């Protein structure tokens, strides 16, 4: 526990806020996007500078506490009750340098902040589907862009510099020559608190993208057609398909309110006519309830998936799939189709491949290269619904296991998985895991950074 005297001493060392449970502002700093995984830290430091982060880490070390970091708050597997929670929103900034096509962020801005800053510059980041996700949390896990991933690889492939505070309280500058550069791109929050990142942007201002919402009752006909078509797409085109049971919310267009749909997502980085020609076989499947595919600014990329924009309570799981055979699809249809009792809001398949299979310029800890597809599903509900949702997600994974790979996209690991050494080692692959372990033991021997998918001996 943290005593009042400790807090007085800590307050004297930091210029940002130091907040104990119950104090005004505490709950705002300790928020999570997933309302099923609340944080309940011993104390919060809302850092306003890298020096505040250093003081907070040293305070944790002196008091035998862990250190947790909250960015966008999407994956907090641990309530951090014996930890100092460091938040960095007071440090948030995004600076774009068009000449060098570089973005520099400080703190933990969300992707929408970067999209807003790049809007009009003709440049785009390799960001994910949800603009609410934190830039740092995404990049530390690799980061798979559903629009630029197949043409440009993982988000972390384009990171050029990371500034961070390690467990000894020192501020490190990590570039390609540093031994931490390998580990940071994939090890998530295991090695320290990142205070700034620089990464390359790409010359993309508009894309041809959006979604086709088709009646869910037609799933058995649509899914094989989608798979056969997805396998023909060039790298500049990307697609995923989601079987969705949408809520009856008034902010959805009327045909989608409370509807059961097959949502085919599509994007093409290039000429709109060519994009439309590529999408034609899916449009030919028949009239969509809604067709949102058209020319759009890259800054609006979040509209393609339309992930939840506000915090919700949810349970999620994912797996990597080596292939999508007819049997795989039939299994999925049985699990999530019109005749199932599926309680999940969304069951998604992302087609991967292209540059996502190619090695980065410098070795990293991202282990999902070579996976053909990702399966990702989530269900929305409070604590009373969570056991049922978790059981259904586990059943899905169990039934899809014959086609699954042990490796997975690291950013999609949910709070409900990756909790043991064996599981994490299989996800990273033993070779990468052993290398991560060596770095972890050197830079964080006391395992201060443990409120995450923890790399353990
Ligand atoms: C709706 C939705 C859509 C998504 N779409 C995609 C997608 O398209 N592609 C993809 O790759 N991923 C996707 N994700 C997964 C997402 O990228 C990860 O969950 C990511 O780790 C979330 O980061 P965060 O900062 O928002 O969450 P947080 O829970 O705040 O952080 C996640 C982890 O990163 C660590 N972390 C965050 N900031 C720092 C920091 N400054 N220093 C050290 N550690 C830090 C945290 O400690 C935590 O362990 C999606 C997730 C959701 C919920």
From TrEMBL:
Q: Could you tell me one molecular function GO term of this UniProt entry?
A: FAD binding
Q: Which Pfam families does the entry link to?
A: BBE, FAD_binding_4
Q: Where is the FAD-binding PCMH-type domain?
A: 37-204
Keywords for the protein's UniProt record, in alphabetical order: FAD, Flavoprotein, Oxidoreductase
Q: Does the entry feature the keyword Oxidoreductase, yes or no?
A: yes
UniProt-listed InterPro entries: BBE (IPR012951), FAD-bd_PCMH (IPR016166), FAD-bd_PCMH-like_sf (IPR036318), FAD-bd_PCMH_sub1 (IPR016167), FAD-bd_PCMH_sub2 (IPR016169), FAD-linked_Oxidoreductase (IPR050416), Oxid_FAD_bind_N (IPR006094), Oxy_OxRdtase_FAD_BS (IPR006093)
Question: In the UniProt record, does the keyword Flavoprotein occur?
Answer: yes
Cofactors: FAD
Return the PROSITE patterns for the record.
FAD_PCMH, OX2_COVAL_FAD
Family note: Belongs to the oxygen-dependent FAD-linked oxidoreductase family.
Matching PANTHER family: BINDING OXIDOREDUCTASE, PUTATIVE (AFU_ORTHOLOGUE AFUA_1G17690)-RELATED, FAD-BINDING PCMH-TYPE DOMAIN-CONTAINING PROTEIN
UniProt name for this protein = FAD-binding protein
Q: What organism does the UniProt record list as the source?
A: Kineosporia babensis
